[in-house]
Write a structure and sequence with these properties.
mainly alpha
């Protein structure tokens, strides 16, 4: 591997994000901070890679398929939040609700036009690897393929073009989730609160975000809520409202769980062990 510790970089980003409130009065300044923070990380990564290169093709593919897109996606995400919140209506809530709903519609239209019908999107979502060498190594950009014009603005020494496409997919998923949370707050949706009671900061999730994501997917896979007729994002919104936290990397976190070296269900294993110990004490 390169001199950079990817796991440590990821953990630093998560720790920085855990400081965020994403509250309406603070989100603009928080988004500005995260744009700067993440851009500096990308700048550091770029300098190390330009200096040291990669130790193998496998490392290069891993970096441009997994590491860089995750960070770049968050830069795009926070930049869009900044732009959206600095142009949002100040009052009343009915205008805000219409504003965020229109943003969701725009996001879905963009997705339908630029993502879900493309060969690359199908390739990425199906977890294929047969074209990784073409998509995620440097020097393979074909400018004659009619790709988007922004490609002429990227640094060919630090992008394969497709790393950016993955970042756009991930940022759209995070942004969609953000809009749902905002609408939930505005509408005071009952399933974002427990028994219609206003929750304060008394309820706090004390495990990791990955643990909560694992639990959310387990509930979804077992059809424990609404007989399985509630989608992942809405279950996530429910838990975010309950604990006052923001989960912004759900899809990719789940895919990382599938390739864990030990147990893929480490948190559920922990729950089972702790419950059995508790039963034995009774």
């Amino acid at each position: 591997m390169t001199k950079l510790n990817y796991a440590a970089t990821h953990n630093c980003i998560l720790q920085e994000e855990q400081k965020l409130t994403l509250q309406p009065g603070l989100i603009i300044e928080e988004a500005k901070h995260m744009i700067s923070y993440l851009s500096n990380i990308l700048f550091t990564l770029k300098n190390v890679i330009l200096k040291d290169g990669f130790n193998s093709i496998e490392e290069e593919i891993y970096f441009f398929k997994h590491i860089k897109p995750q960070i770049l996606a968050k830069v795009i995400y926070y930049n869009k939040i900044y732009r959206i919140e600095t142009t949002s209506p100040t009052y009343p809530n009915v205008l805000l609700e219409d504003y965020y709903q229109k943003k969701i519609d725009e996001l879905m239209t963009e997705f339908k036009i630029h993502a879900n019908k493309t060969d690359f999107y199908r390739y990425y979502k199906s977890d294929r690897t047969d074209r990784d060498l073409q998509y995620f190594t440097l020097g393979n950009i074909n400018f004659l393929n009619g790709i988007n014009s922004f490609i002429f603005e990227i640094d060919p020494l630090f992008s394969t073009y497709y790393d950016y496409k993955i970042a756009r997919i991930l940022s759209s998923e995070m942004l969609y989730n953000y809009f749902l949370v905002r609408l939930c707050d505005i509408q005071n949706i009952t399933n974002c609160k427990t028994n219609n009671m206003a929750l304060d900061n008394a309820l706090q999730w004390s495990e990791s975000q990955n643990a909560l994501i694992e639990l959310i997917y387990a509930l979804y896979a077992s059809k424990a809520i609404n007989n399985g007729n509630l989608e992942i994002r809405k279950i996530a919104v429910l838990f975010q409202g309950l604990f006052g936290i923001n989960l912004i990397d759900i899809h990719h976190a789940f895919h990382r769980m599938k390739t864990r070296a030990k147990s893929r269900t480490s948190y559920l294993d922990k729950l089972k062990t702790n419950l059995e110990k508790y039963m034995d004490r009774e």
